[in-house]
Write a structure and sequence with these properties.
- By secondary structure, this protein is of the alpha/beta class.
- The chain is 35% helix and 19% strand.
- The strands form three sheets. A six-stranded parallel beta sheet has the order 6-5-4-9-10-11, with helices on both faces.
- Strand 9, helix 8 and strand 10 form a beta-alpha-beta unit.
- It is globular, with a radius of gyration of 22 Å.
- The N terminus is likely disordered.
Length: 325
């Protein structure tokens, strides 16, 4: 799989690709070899269109820089009650109960929404999402938060329309004005059967459904998955060769992957914060789009005139991304 950069000059691009292979044991580093390809990127030849890329985002500590459940509980002063009840019931059920307590004590939906709109987010996350959406990627959320929290924040940020689907626990305001939070999977009636995931949601099952729906459409798409938590490990195992996993460094999913990275078929590219997320994600999307243009024959047109482009070796080489032991 290649990772590279596209230098643009009057309708032409020089694509510098790096084909890398992991070593057998951690630390894993990409062994790089340099390849140059001329790619036509002018609109007269190539045109636009949707990229065959599905980007799947976790929400808490991936899009926003906190856990939305904890953020609401702490900001509204219910931390002690939360900690008291946590040992007695599943997290999802606890959040529903706490929303009932908030309502009983006169806290309104508007107050909850105001707290959500103040949730911390790295300044480069929204531009990154807007950029890959503009490049034709299909974006979906796969999160163990809830629909009300996620949509409230995405609407506030002005990026709700960038996402074609939100897979999460149902969250809605009932007829009494109380926020209800229900499980994505009704674990009281049956189990989803996954020992890696919490009882209310297996993200691996969600990924398999998305993969099946894409296959049923007769399309071949590449997947990029971004996440941080324990619940993001199961879906990372469902990704295929040619896909990409972007775990947040030094978070639970990173630690799980580093125990045995070879269990993943997808290539692994870590990130630490919104700035690195944006840089790595845009690089991967640009690389995939360029490779697909090469495969589809959208190369240099006879109608284009090649300009001289000077490219030094140190400009071409990009640092390898590593998964440490």
């Amino acid at each position: 799989m290649s990772l590279g950069k596209l230098w643009k000059n009057k309708g032409f691009g020089i694509f510098v690709g790096y084909w890398g292979k992991y070593s057998e044991t951690p630390p894993l580093s990409l062994s790089l070899s340099l390849s140059l390809s001329l790619v036509c990127i002018c609109p007269c030849c190539c045109g636009g269109g949707m990229a065959d890329i599905v980007v799947l985002f976790d929400f808490d500590k991936t899009i926003i820089d906190c856990d939305s459940d904890n953020w609401v509980v702490d900001e509204l002063g219910f931390t002690d009650l939360f900690n008291e009840l946590l040992p007695t019931m599943p997290w999802n059920s606890l959040m529903d109960k706490l929303m009932g307590e908030l309502h009983a004590r006169g806290r309104t939906i508007e107050e909850i929404a105001d707290v959500l709109q103040r949730a911390p987010i790295h300044p480069r996350i929204v531009p990154a999402i807007k950029s890959i959406h503009a490049m034709g990627c299909e974006l979906r959320v796969v999160s163990d938060a809830n629909l009300f929290f996620i949509e409230t924040i995405l609407n506030h940020l002005g990026i709700r329309e960038c996402f074609s689907e939100i897979n999460t626990n149902p969250g809605f305001v009932d007829e009494e004005g109380r926020l209800r939070i229900l499980p994505f999977h009704d674990f009281t009636s049956s189990s989803h059967g996954c020992g890696l995931c919490p009882p209310n949601m297996c993200k691996g099952v969600v990924i398999e459904r998305i993969q099946a729906s894409v296959s049923a459409e007769g399309k071949k798409k590449r997947f990029i998955y971004l996440g941080d938590g324990n619940g993001d490990y199961c879906p990372s195992l469902k990704l295929l060769e040619g896909d990409f996993m972007m775990p947040r460094k030094n978070y639970p999913v990173w630690d799980l992957i580093c125990r045995n990275p070879m269990l993943l078929k997808a290539e692994i590219y870590g990130w630490t914060d919104g700035e690195e997320l944006e840089r790595v994600l845009l690089r991967l999307v640009d690389t995939i789009i360029t490779e697909e243009k090469i495969k589809s024959g959208q190369l240099i047109s006879s109608d284009c005139k090649l300009q001289n482009i000077a490219l030094s070796a140190h400009e071409a080489l990009l640092p390898a991304l590593r998964v440490p032991q």
